[in-house]
Every structure is written in C-alpha cells, then in structure tokens.
Design brief:
Structural class: alpha/beta
CATH class: Alpha Beta
Number of strands: 8
Strand content: 5-15%
CATH topology: Rossmann fold
Distance between the termini: 44 Å
Bound molecules: thiamine diphosphate, iron/sulfur cluster, magnesium ion
Radius of gyration: 20 Å
Number of helices: 13
Length: 344
C-alpha cells in the first residue's frame, strides 16, 4: 500500500507481511494523487474513453490493505492481461466468464484456512470480484447468488456497460429497453431491445447481504466511500457501477464521465446504498434530487448523447421515449418510497 508520497507510480503494490495496513480513507484529490496508486498500471488496451479503468482507479482509492482481485472474462480482463503481460499491480485471478464469484469464494475460503492454521502472514486479506454485466446479470448470476447465500466475505463489483462489449456489443440482462445492440438491432421489426433491465442490485438486496450500493464514476467520492464500506462489512457486498462504453453506447470519448453523470441526473441510474437492518439510503445527487425534484432531468438528456438511442429521438418514436420515461419514473418513485432518508 502506498504510504506517504508515492515514489514510483508504476510499481506493484507490495504488502509487507505482518505490517498492519489500516490506511485512512482519503477523499482529497491532491492527497489522493500524491499518496495513492491505482492497482491498474498504464499500458492496458482498454479503449480511450472507457469508464472501466476509472472504476478500478476509484476502487484502488478505497482498498485498505492486502487485496486479491478475481476478474470475470470481459473487456476489463481481456484488455488488461494480454499474455504475457499484465496491468494489475495486485494479485489477480481469472478463471472463466461465469465463475468469478465462485473462484473468489475459493480464494476467500483458502485465506480463512491459512489464517486458521497460522500460515497467513497478514491480519486480513480483502477479496474483490469484478465482473461485467454479461458476467453478472446473466452467465455468472448463479455463482454470484451462491456466493451471497454462503456468506463469503467478498466485495463483488459489477461494472455495467450494458452489453457484452468484449465480443461485439450483444444485448445482456443489463441492457436497457430500446437500446441498439448487434443482437437487438433497430429496424422495421423491433426498436432495439424489447425487454427491461434486470434490477440486479435489488435482487442482491433480496439476498439479505450486509451491503449493496450503486455508484457512478461521475460521483467519484460517493463511489470511493461505497467501495470502502463494501470492503469493511463482514460478509458479502455488492457494488453496481454504471460504466460507460464509447464503442457500444456510441458517444465521443470525451463524454465518458458526462454520460455517467446524466445517468444519475435523469434518475435512470439513481445512487443509493442499502445497509442490512437499516434499509435503503439515497446518496449524493440522487438525495439532492429527492429533496429538490426540479433538479431531475428528462430522460432525453441521457439519450441524446448516445448513438445507441439515436432512433428514439426521431419524431415517430416519441411514444417509446415516453414509455422509457414512465419506466424510469416508476423505478425512481418506488425507490423514493423505500429510501429511509427520502423526504416524506
Ligand atoms: C462460457 C462462455 N461463453 C462465452 C464466452 C465469450 N465471451 C467472453 S467475454 C464475453 C462478453 C462479456 O460481457 P460482459 O460481462 O458484459 O463484459 P464486457 O466485455 O462488456 O466488459 C463473452 C460472451 C466465454 N468466454 N465463455
Ligand atoms: S469496448 Fe467498451 S467496455 Fe470494452 S474497452 Fe472499449 S470502451 Fe471499454
Ligand atoms: Mg458488458
């Protein structure tokens, strides 16, 4: 863990055995730049403008000591570990597309066994599993649900770019209604995806795990705090991060963070956290919107900067935008009713 000024920003994060690492959470940008190093080193092949490495950087700001990352197959895995190289500065494991949560469960169980037999040279080792939406909403869901049910002490981070991007932009359970993908094409027969987005974070809440949260790279301090909370709880935690993809969402690379801001400003992707026994809490901009509803932007603000929704802005598709707005409003209203800190 970097302590004091980071001398070489491109080194491995070495955790000396026996030493206690209780690094305080830093939220001052200058201090972060001086004292914290990303666990993802430069030289990876993620696209310019991809939000996934930003998500990992924010996660890096939250880690508190020895950490092992388990990565599902997907853009983040493929583009950071092109054989024989790696961009990861922490121990990192990839097994398959569908089993990040079960591989991480094995890692966590092994750490426990080592600790029990006195062979773990650390007080504690955090295990973080990272998966894309395909690897989480769909193919990896069984492994994830099992991890939650067994109660492993793992933080699962979902970077949700809303399609199977690594294999060429196919729709997933995380793709929103009416989005264009190569398997939900826009044409005379269908207007993009015809199904809704699976409420994955609420599904994880239903598992009654200690901590679930949503996050956006545009609200970085909120995201870092949530990552830290997810690491600190005893047991499984799940952080759902909206992760823009300029290739699949069709926007200019300079808009990467702006798109994730608009996702929150329109309530398409509200920011909240769920603490077991306490309930749902709105955070950051979403809490501001709940207190001052006039801050809520129309869904067009999210759609208009993305080519995958270009067809929706044509006059003949006004009805679809209306439907999408109603869907967003219904989910938001539902959240307002559940949130403990929403104004009544
Ligand atoms: C069992 C299996 N089926 C299909 C694939 C091919 N495959 C690799 S990555 C990927 C898509 C990953 O999508 P997602 O999890 O959303 O991550 P992203 O690439 O979008 O970051 C697919 C279909 C695979 N590796 N294994
Ligand atoms: S295709 Fe999308 S998710 Fe994949 S590296 Fe490029 S921008 Fe990132
Ligand atoms: Mg994806």
């Amino acid at each position: 863990m970097s302590e004091g000024k980071a001398q070489n920003p491109y080194r491995l994060l070495i955790f000396e055995p026996g030493r206690k690492y209780e690094s305080p959470l830093i939220l001052n940008p200058r201090k972060l730049a001086e004292e914290k190093q990303s666990m993802l080193l430069p030289g990876h092949r993620l696209c310019a403008g991809c939000a996934a490495p930003v998500v990992v950087k924010l996660l890096s700001f939250a880690i508190r000591g020895p950490t092992i990352v388990v990565n599902a197959t997907g853009c983040l895995e493929v583009a950071t570990t092109i054989f024989p190289y790696t961009s990861w500065a922490v121990p990192w494991l990839h097994v398959a597309f569908e089993n990040a949560a079960s591989a991480a469960s094995g890692v966590e169980a092994a750490i426990k066994a080592l600790k029990k037999s006195g062979r773990l040279p650390y007080d504690h080792v955090d295990v973080v599993a990272i998966g894309g939406d395909g690897g989480t909403f769909d193919i990896g869901f069984q492994a994830l649900s099992g991890m939650a049910e067994r109660g492993h002490d793992i933080m699962y981070v979902l970077y949700d770019n809303e399609a199977y991007m690594n294999t060429g932009i196919q729709r997933s359970g995380g793709t929103p209604p009416f989005a264009w993908t190569t398997t939900s094409p826009v044409g005379k027969v269908i207007p993009g995806k015809t199904q809704q987005k699976k409420p994955i974070a609420d599904i994880m809440v239903a598992h009654r795990i200690p901590y679930v949260a949503t996050a956006s790279p545009a609200f970085w301090a909120d995201a870092v705090q949530k990552f830290r909370k997810g690491l600190e709880v005893n047991g499984p935690s799940f952080i759902h991060v909206i992760s823009s993809c300029n290739r699949g969402w069709r926007f200019d690379t300079s808009l990467s963070i702006e798109v994730t801001r608009r996702a929150v400003d329109t309530c398409y992707f509200p920011l909240w956290e769920y603490v077991l026994g306490k309930g749902y809490f709105l955070t950051a901009r979403s809490l501001q919107i709940a207190r001052k509803p006039e801050l809520k932007q129309p869904i067009e603000k999210f759609l208009e900067v993305q080519g995958r929704f270009r067809h929706l802005l044509k006059p003949e598709n006004r009805e679809l935008v209306k439907k999408l707005q109603e869907y967003v409003d219904a989910v938001w209203e539902d959240l307002l009713e559940r949130a403990v800190n929403a104004p009544r």
